[in-house]
């Protein structure tokens, strides 16, 4: 490679020097220009009230322009600690200020408005501050710089403007009438061929029913009426003259009254419209016209005379019937003349006087007057006139009618004669009737009785008149009789009311009364039904005997069913025990486990049957817990699906937010499983089962239909689309041992057990079924206001823990075998065991000074004192006594209806001895 010669290098050096000189000159000029521009910018910013600042991230020094210092009321200076300015911000706005931390993070508030208190004048000013973070080449924040200006006056103006706008809007919306401004626009149909609503108040919707009108065009909301409205408002726009009119707004289904005026200048092409809905007024006017026309038609159609008069009484109109009655041509004479022509002379003076009185007082005019027909015949008329008043109460006219009562007057004479005859007949009936007849006050004072009182009860008329009737009423019937008298005083009659009255000789007879109030008195007729009541009571006794016989028949069926099931189970137990004895004698102990298992299985089946029977009898001791039924159903879903088989689909519909209910979870699981099995059996060809939960609030009517108290309930329903039930089957479905399944396929205790369990839990069970459609069984359980318990975790069986030194257990049971077994278990565990065979013997030990850590007792004990009574008596001297009830039949009444006190538990026979040992230890340890 050739080297450049020295001359070439020198040339290049000279050129570079010249270029450097030129660049230095350009840079100097640029710096001068930059400084000039910055000075101009600074003056412009200060002229606009803008101050500049810069804060170093590392040194936290704020470098302000002079005007920035003036904005904050600080002396002019080249630099300040940033906190000196931050301290001027009011505490309420401190969250809007950039801080050293936020600046280091590069996240200070960028565009804010906050208040400061100027240190020089102590006044509060609003500052608008904008800032940006400047970063180095690595993106690290190096300074925060920006601008600030005083916006106090600007905010004041904005506030005043907002307040003014709010007042305008409030006034605008306060106008009750509808108001809008429309702006004419050019459209496809030509210039000014449509208009758009640019402003509208809320009254627009109230008076038209059209919402969100702003922005909508006329041809959009009322295309069929557009030309008419355009002509009206277009005229206002063209000539500037306001108009006022009434018009139907068909699209809105309204009739409106409108005032319209042009919005100046005309170049805005706007018209203001103020309107109100007058639909009701138009309807009222139409109804008034229709009413007047109907009045005229009715007045001409009815056979009576009809007339009208001015407020001063001058008659202005008669209907055709009145002209025909007088024999004159319609409209042929004035009103006053017709009255003089047809009124009987003897009635004229009184008629005129009464009419003048009605006109003076405005009261209804009514009088019976004789009017003369054209043929000279005089007939009686009821003349009646009523004033018609306006809204202010002033009379606008009179309307009158003349009703021919001549036949009525003649019948009245005949009626008086008939009344006299009937009165004589009534008196005869009063005297001759064998039923009691009575008139008395509502307070019971007798005013009249017929002779039957003497014949039936032995009381003479003079002994009863003025006497309180209630003195003779049987004491057991007095309250109901007084209530009946009170009802009569309120105008209520009784078709039949039964009570007993004392006879003069001291006996009582049943009387069936028919009563009604009249003229402030009680009128009553009574019939002796003593013999009838005696026959009814005899019939009731017969029916009760029949029901008892039917009940005994049911008991016989129950006993037979129990004997059959228990014989099968006892055969398994006894047979297994005999085989165990035989194998022990033979020394063959290898097979004992199989026979023990068979005996235990039979015993457990017997226990399960006992539980099902106890549930039906509603005497089962439950272990109620706050339960989440949804969770219980989900936990059972897999078992249900396996039980019903693949041919039946199972659907669970769980209600959201389901209330807890206080119920025994295991019993509810058994009930659910039984219902699903029944549903499966009703669908031999397969089908669908729906398990549904729901919150139910039963009012008085719904609760009465379900035979429960009104309130909140959780429902659990199981429905199928199977064969359904006949009505006669549904009625018996909850009866024990009733089943429609073939012999050997069902005990008939499933539904009865469910019914007993639900009723004992305070709820109800109901069946809804249609043949061929399916069946739904619903369980209604009362809502529990607490929280549902979490499900218990399944753990391995606990091992029995030996007793501590000196711990003593008292065992009270009338069955020696049970006492022996329990005592053996206690002895094996190291407890001292005391035994008693009945309640009194157990109480004697409990009232002694002996140490007793736990009482294990049966509920049903001989000796006149059951287990619960013994415990109650013992706790008088041992208030903290811990008790374990062991029972074979769970006496619910003795155990406080299934709800146990603290420190008390129940163990149902039969039970395993390991379970007994664990339960004893847990109770003693508390």
Radius of gyration: 53 Å
Count helical runs: 27
Helix percentage: 40-55%
Backbone structural class: alpha+beta
Spatial gap, N to C terminus: 108 Å
Question: Strand arrangement, largest sheet?
Answer: 3-2-1-6-5-4
Give the assembly state of these chains: single chain
Poorly predicted parts: 1-6, 549-558, 615-620, 890-894
Number of strands: 33
Give the averaged pLDDT, no decimals.
Answer: 82
Main pleated sheet: 6 strands, antiparallel
| Residue fraction in strands | 25-35%
**Overall 3D form:** flat
What report would you give on this structure?
- It is a single chain.
- The protein is α+β, with helices and mostly antiparallel strands.
- The chain contains 27 helices and 33 strands.
- The strands form seven sheets. It has a six-stranded antiparallel sheet with strand order 3-2-1-6-5-4. A five-stranded antiparallel sheet has the order 8-7-11-10-9. The chain has a five-stranded antiparallel sheet with strand order 13-12-16-15-14, with helices on both faces.
- A hairpin with a 5-residue loop joins β19 (494-502) and β20 (508-518).
